[in-house]
Amino acid sequence: MIACPTSGCERVQHSAFAELHSVPLPALGLGLYLALAYLLIRPGVWYRTAEAAVAFGGAAFSVYLIGVQMFTLNAFCVWCLVSDCTLIAVAAFAFARLFFGSRVAQQSGAAALAARRGPKRRQ
């Protein structure tokens, strides 16, 4: 177990919210980050859409877990908060990549097509 600078980590990690169907949340988080890394390196709009959906689901669950720490447990785990905030940032990045990445791809595709045609000639 990683050392925690506050006493809240122990309280959070030993609570009923530390597992989901007897699977520790850190293991689920690791699986989520690995899935996001895989989706990140894959090209194509389908993978960008899947990445945004997975990241949004993870970020929504992170917001829920922050609420549990704040309102139910009245204790905060620094490492959990770092992971939650990181996942929220990854979700924002994934949505930006989805919406702006497709525009960049379209623009670069149009530029590549124009380059293949060659320069326009004046008549």
Structure description:
The protein has a two-stranded antiparallel sheet with strand order 1-2. It has one domain: Up-down Bundle (de novo design (two linked rop proteins)), CATH 1.20.1440. The protein is elongated and about 75 Å long. 75% of the residues lie in helices and 3% in strands. The model has no long low-confidence stretch (mean pLDDT 84). Helix 2 packs antiparallel against helix 3 and helix 3 (45-73) packs antiparallel against helix 4. The chain is built from four helices and two strands. By secondary structure, the protein is mostly helical.
Topology:
Layout (H helix, E strand, L loop, with lengths): L7 H6 L5 E2 L2 E2 H17 L3 H29 L4 H40 L6
Antiparallel strand pairs: 1-2
Class computed from helices, strands and strand pairing: mainly alpha
Strand adjacency order, main sheet: 1-2
Average pLDDT: 84
Spell the H/E element sequence. Answer: HEEHHH
- The CATH C-level class name: Mainly Alpha
Portion in strands: under 5%
Q: Which homologous superfamily in CATH is the superfamily?
A: VKOR domain
Main sheet: strands, sense, barrel: 2 strands, antiparallel
Number of β-strand runs: 2
Query: What is the overall number of helices?
Result: 4
Query: Helical percent range?
Result: over 70%
User: If you compute it from the alpha carbons, what radius of gyration comes out, rounded to the nearest whole angstrom?
Assistant: 21 Å
Count of the domains: 1
Unreliable spans: none
Would you give the CATH topology? de novo design (two linked rop proteins)
| Proper CATH architecture | Up-down Bundle
Instruction: Give the N-to-C terminal Cα separation.
Output: 74 Å
Q: What does the overall shape look like?
A: elongated
